[in-house]
Amino acid sequence: DVKVTQSSRYLVKRTGEKVFLECVQDMDHENMFWYRQDPGLGLRLIYFSYDVKMKEKGDIPEGYSVSREKKERFSLILESASTNQTSMYLCASNSYPNEQFFGPGTRLTVL
Amino acid sequence: QQQVKQSPQSLIVQKGGISIINCAYENTAFDYFPWYQQFPGKGPALLIAIRPDVSEKKEGRFTISFNKSAKQFSLHIMDSQPGDSATYFCAASDSINGGATNKLIFGTGTLLAVQP
Q1: Measured torsion, CA atoms of residues B36, B42, B43, B44, in degrees rounded to the nearest 10
Q2: Do residues A76 and A21 lie in contact, with contact meaning Cβ atoms separated by under 8 Å?
């Protein structure tokens, strides 16, 4: 069974904190993605990576950075969390041209 | 031009009825159109997908209808069941300009409730 896991299901942080969201896939996929999901806005791509140490900005990269040091792991970093980053964060992976597999999501609340 | 517009935002259907969700796009380079299904507390999962060389694809009770000239595609759920209650997302990608990642552009989602 293919699997994408995310480090936390729920996370509460304070404004200004540095936040790390971790994603691990066990399918040996080349590509990994970070999305945020907000009601009425659907899934919006933050960053993606097509190889180790390679990354590209998605549609809403501002306020975020990413790290991919190993093929199976893709981290999303909020350098200084703000309240407008309160959202559901979804990680996905795929091996082109196949479907994307999603993790269960991390619901982040920034107070 | 990169948007995928999805409607309705929410939908209530009686058990046994037909659920229809519509999506429209502008980018004629899009060549892959998947639908994802998301249950509460879970990540989205691929339900069914179509490429523009066919006008319809059916898998069980789920059918995608694709109209290339109108740049529209829709999901039909026949004999809708309470277990189909979920959020549905349409998406599109461009395999040529999108690079080797199959990067998807998602619609805004439709919350479907099937009443018993």
Answers
A1: 0
A2: yes
Angstroms from B11 CA to nearest CA on chain A? 14
- Min distance A41 CA to chain B CA atoms (Å): 5
Buried b (16+ CB within 10 A) or exposed e, B81-104: eeebbbbbbbbbbbbeebeebbbb
- For residue A90, which phi and psi values (nearest 5 degrees)? -120, 135
**Cα–Cα dist B107/B27, whole Å:** 14
Give residue-wise pLDDT tens across range B27-64: 988 988 999 999 999 999 999 999 888 999 999 999 99
Q: Which of residues 29-48 of A touch B (CB under 8 A)?
A: 30-31, 33, 35, 40-45, 48
